[in-house]
Amino acid sequence: MVGDEAAAEVARRFGLPWRRELASPAPALWFDGARLVLGVWGGRGPRLVVDFLSGRAGYRLRHGDAGQAVARAVGVRGGQRPRVLDLTMGLGGDAFALAALGCVVWGVERRGEVAALLDNGLGRAGAELPWVGERLRLCHGEAVQWAPRLAAALSPEVIYLDPMYPEGRRRGAPRKEMALLRDWLGGDEDADDLLGLALSLGARRVVVKRPRRAPPLVGREPDVCREGRSTRFDIYLRR
Ligand SMILES: C[S@@+](CC[C@H](N)C(=O)[O-])C[C@H]1O[C@@H](n2cnc3c(N)ncnc32)[C@H](O)[C@@H]1O
Predict the structure, then answer these.
(1) Nearest to residue 115, comparing CAs of 140, 146, 147?
(2) Which end of the chain, N or C, is surrounded by fewer C-beta atoms within 10 Å?
(3) Whether domain 55-237 has CATH 3.40.50.150
(4) Strand order of the sheet with strand 84-86?
(5) What is the pLDDT of residues 161-219, one digit of tens each?
(6) Contacts of 197 (CB under 8 A, 6+ apart)
(7) Residue 64 above 60 pLDDT?
């Protein structure tokens, strides 16, 4: 985290190291106006910002076609808007798409840098769209620590998982943002552990987003599988 008072406050909240300046190029967070940016400090390389109101997310929001595939996978249909607990919230794209359709989505993100970016994006979106604060909630920390408490408070109908695919596997290249995050912050090598946790929470449905050709988590075949062009949703139903 690099910068001034506002940056120092974000660093404190999300447990990140804080420096007024960095001596060498390294991935860092800083403010560009109201927008929190993650990138290589001092470099010209790619940068990440969570912005739900412009770009691809904003376009889909304005045109009402946000997240159709993920919506079908979690069971949005007719008047049904399931409550969703997202244990791998990341940059919040899936959670936001579901909330835009009317779902209440609470989520967990363990990486401080990612949680800080998402918190900033949600704050800016919430200033324009009142439903953001009503439907979306982010908790920073490990899923295993937060999940039981959140499940007890929300009674989610769906637990949603979208872990990063481990590095070095060729099948299922991650989206550009995720590839950057994986390079800068590392992958989710413990992704298999999440399935058991998700299934233990008593929700009606557990939905796992995977690259289309990746094996299912823990090698456990889902009850239902929905395949898209590059992704697949593995759906486990409570019996
Ligand atoms: C592929 S990203 C999720 C992308 C998200 N679905 C979106 O639309 O932006 C996976 C995220 O899950 C987080 N994550 C993975 N395992 C976790 C765990 N056990 N607890 C909390 N967060 C976790 C990672 O830090 C990463 O940011």
Answers:
(1) 140
(2) C
(3) yes
(4) 136-140, 105-109, 84-86, 158-161, 205-211, 231-237, 224-227
(5) 999 976 655 445 557 888 888 888 888 989 999 999 999 999 999 999 999 999 999 99
(6) 87, 143, 144, 147
(7) yes
Ligand 1 close to Cβ of residue 188 (< 6 A): yes
How does pLDDT run across 129-167, given as a tens digit for each residue?
999 999 999 999 999 999 999 999 999 999 999 999 766
Q: Which atom of ligand 1 is nearest to the CA of 114?
A: 27
Domain extents in the chain: 5-48, 55-237
Q: Is 208 in the pocket of ligand 1 (CB under 6 A)?
A: no
User: Which one of 52, 109, 122, 192 would you pick to mutate in the ligand 1 pocket, going by the greatest count of ligand atoms within 8 A of its CB?
Assistant: 109
CB 196 within 8 A of CB 161: no
Q: Is 119 in the pocket of ligand 1 (CB under 6 A)?
A: no
- Ligand 1 atom with least separation from CA of 111: 25
Q: 202, 211 in Cβ contact below 8 A? A: no
Beta carbon of 60 within 6 Å of any ligand 1 atom: no
